[in-house]
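new request in #modeling-help
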Amino acid sequence: MSKQPILQIENLRVSFRIHDEYYAAVDGVSLTVNENEVVAIVGESGCGKSALALSIMGLHPLERTKLEGTIAFKGKNLLPLSVPQLNQIRGKDIGMIFQDPLTALNPLMSVGRQIEESMDYHTKLSSSAKRQRTLELLKRVGIPNPEKTYDRYPHELSGGMRQRIVIAIAIACEPSLIIADEPTTALDVTIQAQIMGLLKELQQQMKTGIILITHDLGVVAEMADRVAVMYAGEIVELADVNTLFSRPLHPYTRSLLHSIPSVQTRKEKLHVIQGIVPSLQKLPRTGCRFKSRISWIDESEHEKNPILREVAPGHWVRCTCYKNFYFPQDNIGDMNYGIS
Amino acid sequence: MLKFILRRIVIMIPQLFLLSILVFLLAKAMPGDALTGRLANNPKMDAQTLAEMKEKLGLNDPPYVQYVRWIKNLMQGDLGISYIHQQPVTDLLSERIGNTLLLSACILILSYIIAIPLGIVSGRWTNSLADKLIVGYSYLSFATPLFIFALLMLFVFGFILGWFPTGGSVNIQVEKGTVDYYISKINHLILPSLSGALLSTVGTIQYLRNEIIDTKIKDFVKTARAKGVPESRIYSRHILRNSFLPIAAFLGYEITGLIGGSIFLESIFSYPGIGQLFLQSIMQRDYSVITALVMISGLATLLGTLLSDIILSAVDPRIRIE
Amino acid sequence: MAFLKVNHLKVYYPVRGGFFRRVIDYVRAVDDVSFELEQGETYGLVGESGCGKTTTGRTIIGLIKATAGEILLEGKDLTKLSRREFYHYRKDIQMIFQDPYSSLNPRKRVLDIIAEPLRNFEKLSPQEEKRKVQYFVEKVGLHPESIYKYPHEFSGGQRQRIGIARALTLNPKLIIADEPVSALDVSVQAQVLNFMKEIQKEFQLTYLFISHDLGIIRHMCDRIGIMYRGQFVEEGTSEEIFHDPQHIYTKRLISAIPNPNPQHRQEQVKLRQEIDKEYHNSYHQYFDAEGRVYPLKRISETHSVAIP
């Protein structure tokens, strides 16, 4: 596998204005995505994964967002670019797939036109050539009867079909990077399997890099090459997928893996992470951000200013608290659900 | 489509029937009858002639007989005779309905011409100075009573400045069909329609503004941005089309409302339309005209909702009428 | 006698057409469904969106009227009861809803939210009511003082527990949980699921657990019914469904679950392809000419499959 980086995020901070004060939802994230590589960003709601995804193409409302750091796409920093400059890249070099295929499509425009639209701005194709290419794309994303579907409106298609349309839009101009924000979350499990298969297949054909944003570790296990686990705006662990699932280190990663009900084995109790995710305004900005949720671990195990450290080749972990981390026996299934 | 319209029209029949009963009962419940007005005009009329006339007109028949007679005539297009004007109501109305429709159309078009650009500016650049001014204007116009505003307009532009005529729908000295005739007609329309339009924009502005604010954060707009669609096209192709839906849907109702709202405007500007006629008829208890007008506005309401549905199905692919 | 017995339940919605809007067809949301729940067990209804699982749940609790069939709660047919009679049974069945954000009235205090069923069914003095609400609030792991707060002051998991407290106040026998954790994050989801298991033991509850998430169903349920287009495809114990699925639809559903071990990625893809092939090749063994499944056929004491 070639290791040509296409996206290099350096020390990214994404802050949102809440009552005249800026709060960082993404706080010092560095991440590289290589060509032909699927990098998953996994975490729970509010961890900053979606804010990160939207900031790459500058899709946040400008008037109340502050972006700092660098997001270099093929060596060029995207952050200082104006919207018209970004429009040269959006849809052409970077494609995006959204979570809910029903709301992600314009209800008043035929799906064929919606796929074609990005070609209007990024290619000089004639309208018949665009139509031809759209029909090919429809076929490529597994839509039976492309001719007929071209003139259909989103509401006339099933959820799975709609998500295929969203994917066709994303790949219309053969981008070298696709950002997929929870691409299968709104879908039924059998459709999810189909869409995951389709994405994987397209990625292998086009050698595209994919940033896969998801909360579903099952989807990560099936799709990703590398995984970044995010908690409270920071990456807490970064590793290749096999390492992450076979030898997870950070307490948050381990807790997450413990709290998912599994189809294979049946446990009486699931692991419960104490407390709740602090809100953006109340987030402690110094020290280990996961500290309050593993209160049985001694203070001295944490670092003062935890950094993401490479503990094995390609395996990065934040803070030293992972070294002596354990699950307390009595924590499992206790009645203290974190009165806050 | 045709089937749908036919079906809706068929459904209208029982609705109109119910309305007719209601209108008839209301008219009967009002003090006085068709002759009271005439009596007032002609003090010489004695009690005996009055009784004879009552008998002749069938006013002594039981109410249901009167109702059946009325509805029978109604279905034949005979709306009765106006006792005040001493001419068939149909003739009376046909003169004025055209004027009212013209005025309503002018108000509607003018109010859209004013409201749509303002609504777009307001919704696109929310919280900007322009937005604040526009919102201020729309609140002000919402709070201003039409009859005061119209009187003010009439006073300033009609009497003080003398730019526009202060009454009527056309200069009667001009010969019908000439260019001057049409110019005079337009000249008479400007003041009432502007007064109406300036105050009726608030609904459209607020609707459009809110729709745009709601639509611009929708996911499909994000999808369009992620495609690299320029900002101006984001608005023209994606946001505005979706934001216009409720306004298009509202058009039918708007028309109905305008016809109802013409009462004030026409009275203030002495504009000979059905609104003015309606007010006069109520004052003078001209029942046959009142009942005819209520029936007509009822029909207009039903047709307005039908029109709304048809427009909506034409612009929104999700609503398809087979 | 079964605690809850659903017999040939049908919920049809008319499809109208033509000039006079006559009924020309029916949408068979629930089409001849029968199953039984024993007291104290958790029965899972699984299927993809539109399969009729939610409609089934809502029909049992009386939110939707059954077109035909019986719902026997401890031998009493709920579908035949008058409104007044049903009222008494209504408190034996409670529901937990999917979205903790929209199922609690934002303008009401937790006290009023939880006390609402009490006020409908029992005449309690304000003190008694408060004591009872606080008891349940503590049971669901919230601070007793939190009864004066409003829903927005709580996290998603806490809100769902408020919803559960509300369902518990009338000592129900059966709780219908419709996707109770789908709107929650994984760690919060674990909290709520653990908690549901605990109160089940404590209050001897019977659960009808409706979900599309097979992992959660596997974790929670003793027995499972798989639904497809309004009908049952397969029914059996958790073990049977997950380790010995018989119907091609069940197999497909189970193989579609993401495999949490990245090392088995290739095998999982292969398995799905094989099952897809089987699905297409042997389609007519499992589905009739109209694409509907056959009636259930018992293949063991506990396991039934819809095969001809």
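bot summary: Chain C touches chain B at residues 19, 21 (CB under 8 Å).
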